[in-house]
Design goal:
Oligomer: single chain
Number of helices: 9
Largest sheet: none
Number of strands: 0
Structural class: mainly alpha
Helix content: over 70%
Order of helices and strands: HHHHHHHHH
Distance between the termini: 87 Å
Shape: elongated
Radius of gyration: 30 Å
Length: about 180
């Protein structure tokens, strides 16, 4: 059975962390690289590594992203969004050269802001839906209100608004075939 990479390199990693100077560190790093290169491959990993460009492209092209987009388009949009956030809204170039820990902290702040904004939108929409539902419950005498109340119990607010507008349009506009009967 093959050891895991961590098991194989554990002593080297500990030695690298405890290295007293840069030359010792580089010597241990070289030794670790030699150890990794001397390992035999299992299950045709070398063949997989040679073809990883094709495989990665195939995998990326099948990732479903935001707005139902597939592949690198969604990834590029996210990448561009992250770069704009990190570069204070400047588009097209990267001037962000901070430490990786700072990068992670900044990306967590971006995610937190995004989640808070989304939560606020969803909360506002749920309150608007509660108001709409309560007003529909007051007057259930019309067929339209009964249908809208039923729809409000199963839809989110943007879908409900679209549904309500369709109902109102259907109520106010004459049926397209009404003009045909008038001509006869």
């Amino acid at each position: 059975m093959f050891p895991t990479c961590h098991e194989l390199l554990k002593s080297h990693l500990i030695s690298m962390v405890n290295a007293s100077n840069e030359s010792d560190y580089k010597c241990i790093l070289t030794s670790a690289n030699n150890l990794l290169q001397s390992q035999t491959s299992k299950n045709n990993q070398d063949t997989f590594a040679e073809n990883r460009g094709m495989d990665a492209e195939y995998m990326i092209s099948n990732i479903v992203g935001k707005h139902g987009l597939l592949g690198s388009t969604a990834l590029e949009q996210n990448h561009a969004s992250v770069l704009m956030y990190l570069n204070d809204g400047v588009w097209g170039k990267n001037n962000y050269y901070n430490h990786p820990i700072t990068l992670i902290k900044d990306l967590f702040c971006r995610q937190k802001n995004h989640v808070n904004k989304t939560n606020a939108i969803v909360f506002g929409q749920s309150k608007m839906m509660e108001v709409e539902t309560s007003s529909l419950k007051k007057d259930q005498n019309t067929n339209m209100n009964k249908q809208l109340l039923q729809a409000a119990q199963h839809m989110n607010f943007p879908e409900y608004k679209h549904h309500k507008l369709a109902w109102q349009k259907a109520e106010t506009e004459p049926a397209p075939h009404a003009n045909i009967f008038a001509l006869l």
